[in-house]
Write a structure and sequence with these properties.
Distance between the termini: 48 Å
Structural class: mainly alpha
Number of strands: 0
Length: about 220
Amino acid sequence: MRSFTGDQLNSMFGDRLYLIVSVALIVLAIVIFVRSFERKKPGTKDVVLISVMISLAVVGRLVFFMIPQFKPCAAIIIITGVMLGKQAGFLSGVLTAFISDLFFGMGPWTVWQMIAFGIIGILSAIIFNERRIEKMGGYAKLILCVYGFIITFVVYGLIMDTATVFMVTDKPKVATFVATYSAGVVFNLIHGISTFIFLYLMANPLSKKIKRVLVKYQNR
């Protein structure tokens, strides 16, 4: 089997080698995580619930397509992670980005969106769960909403702004990163605020419906 040196790879792919490697690593991480979900042998109720949540996130993104960055996707992914766990949160994030981009247009950014939303789903499941939220008392929803704003503004914004730098320049420099992050502040702020609003409106009703299904079909 033939092996390639660094110089040969650079001659084949030019200055975009770092982008190809980064995308390959992201895809590998997604495949590994999806496989771990399959090994859990999820029940019918789990598959149906995740499918419904993904559908809601995709439809929500389509409905609000006229308003840049004002989308319910992150809020629904957060609720999925909190109520259904890490694998479900990650899977809902990955598939929401992938399926919705079938309508909005796919490109190099799709993989970055998949991993960004997936990370939001994982972190939400790690930081919160149904019992932890119940222990927070009356301020639980407010805390979740603030968290949603922060993770969308910081994590999603940081990942996608970094992806933008990698996609538009052959030789990223510190100044390019700073300029891109600065230019993206307003968009990330709108995205964070929209997540806060949608969590405030949907967290309780969606959580109650998910809990009702889990209790009713707990042995299936």
